[in-house]
Amino acid sequence: MAQAHHIKDRRWAGVVLASAVAMLAGSATAQSQAAGNRAAYDVALKCFVANGKAKEDRRGAGDASGAARYDTQAKHAFDTAVLLGTALGYSNDQMNRDIGSTLDRELPLMVRSPEYFRQSVADCRAYGLM
Questions:
Q1: Phi/psi zone of residue 78: left (φ > 0), alpha (ψ -120 to 50 degrees), beta?
Q2: Is the pLDDT of residue 6 over 90?
Q3: Contacts of 52-59 spanning 24+ positions with Cβ under 8 A
């Protein structure tokens, strides 16, 4: 009788272990998803800045239709960032701070380095955000 009870406990331990592994795997998947969302959020913010710069460049060149196209893409990148930020649980204040810090960090790089800007544009186009 004691032997049967011991086997039952081992089965229960296996169920508990399997449940714990599933929970940990789910947690790792959730963490992986959050990291992916954060990376996509950062890209969307960068693309918002790149589109804004491209819009001003086109406007400065007298290309109103090009400026309008980049303005539309800037709105799309912004909306994407807000959607991802919301999924990550960020407040509007946090997202506004992130936009400001991305702008402060990225715009000077894009202005100083045409190569950096071209690569940013290529990256944003690859993500469908430009």
A1: alpha
A2: no
A3: 52/107, 53/107, 53/110, 53/111, 53/117, 54/121, 54/130
